[in-house]
Amino acid sequence: MAHIQLYIITIALCLLRLFSGTLSSTFTFTNKCSYTVWPGLLSGAGTAPLSTTGFTLEPGQSTSLSVPASWSGRFWGRTFCSQDATTNKFTCVTGNCGSGTLECSGTGAAPPATLAEFTLNGAGGLDFYDVSLVDGYNLPMLISPQGSTGGNCTVTGCFTDLNNACPSDLKVTESSNGVDVACKSACEAFGDPQYCCSGAYGTPDTCKPSSYSMFFKNACPKAYSYAYDDGTSTFTCAGADYIITFCPGPSTSVKSANNDQYPVPINVSAGSGRTRPVFIGTAAIVVLATISRLW
Fold first, then answer.
1. CA 175, CA 178: separation in Å to the nearest integer?
2. Collapsing DSSP states into helix, strand and coil, what is residue 126?
3. Among 2.170.150.70, 2.60.110.10, 2.60.120.10, 1.10.287.130, what is the CATH number of 25-274?
4. Closest to 144 measured CA to CA, from 28, 234, 40
5. Can you give the pTM of this predicted structure?
6. Cα Rg for the chain, rounded, in angstroms?
7. Cys-Cys with 193: which of 64, 199, 275, 284 at CB 3.0–4.6 Å?
8. CB of 263 closer than 8 Å to CB of 50
9. What DSSP line would sit under 29-79, residue for residue?
10. Is 53 exposed, middle or buried (0-12, 13-18, 19+ CB in 10 A)?
11. DSSP characters for 229-276?
């Protein structure tokens, strides 16, 4: 009888540990571009750093990263990166973080760069996320939630290559080969408060979409196009993992509820899902009640 009781207690402790365990999400980065992308990662102030702040992602390659609960920060893709043979300094033409190494080590992306922004386990226990073109654009990017249990949870991002179509006064061209590599925001290009939503234009009432921000919005309806584009650009999920895809192909797209075209989300193993929080008191009552009945 004693060994049976010990077995039951062991199971109970395992269940309690499961119910009260630390939550995390799995972020999978997939490169569908025809070229190498070097993802950069920046944790928000006061949040735990991740296991890496920058890595290499070859064409067709995927890699996964565990992200702790209550983490906030951003991801982006660096392009046209190289390492100087003499100084060993690592630099990128777009999305450069200025660290001089593959790891960004706490520095963000130099604009223009397409950004994926996250606040996990925020208000109401929800994850908040968006793809932002406020700092400009350098490559297509999509966020695909997986296994969510609630919230306004949907695929978002920008799968259109905007570099060639970018307005001439926003376009960034690589000088050595004449390739269009990025598209600036109007704020970066002109520094005007009405484009930067600063000074007298620092409120939602005074800062309105411009013809430049509408270029981004028309091409990527669910992405942030300027600072106060919250209403159509911020999304929420509960209990999700996320796939961040660089250069998602529209050839595998499906229509969302508002008829925007988005790629079909990739399936992720159920083993990588986030365990949802359960109050320890409730779990303890259930487990102990079961034990008492067995005894």
1. 5
2. coil
3. 2.60.110.10
4. 28
5. 0.77
6. 22
7. 199
8. no
9. EEE-SSS-BEEEEEEPTTSPPPS-SB--B-TT-EEEEEEETT-EEEEEEEE
10. buried
11. -GGGT-EEEBS-EEEEEES--GGGEEE-TTS-EEEPPPP--GGGSPPP
Kindly report each contact of residues 196-202 with a partner whose C-beta sits within 8 Å and lies 24 or more positions away, as own/partner.
196/227, 197/226, 197/227, 197/228
pLDDT tens track, the chain, 295 positions: 444 444 443 343 333 333 333 478 999 999 999 999 999 999 999 898 899 999 999 999 999 999 998 999 999 999 999 999 999 999 999 999 999 999 999 999 999 999 999 999 999 999 999 999 999 999 999 999 998 777 789 999 998 999 999 999 999 999 888 899 999 999 999 999 999 999 999 999 999 999 999 999 999 999 999 999 988 999 999 989 999 999 998 633 332 223 333 333 332 222 233 322 323 333 333 333 443 444 4
User: Rounded CA gap, 295 and 292, in Å?
Assistant: 5
Three-state DSSP at 91 gives strand
d(CA 53, CA 127): 21
The answer to whether 67 and 243 have CB atoms below 8 angstroms apart is no
Instruction: Determine the Cα–Cα distance for residues 11 and 162; give it in Å rounded to an integer.
Output: 55
* Signed CA dihedral, 60, 64, 65, 69: sign only: positive
Other Cβ atoms less than 10 A from the Cβ of 1: the count is 6
Q: How far is Cα 173 from Cα 135, in angstroms, rounded to an integer?
A: 17
| Residue 262: HSE in the Cβ half-sphere, 13 Å Cα cutoff | 25
In the chain, where are the structural domains located?
1-21+278-295, 25-274
Owner of token pair 């001439």: 168
Cβ pair 27, 129 in contact under 8 A: no
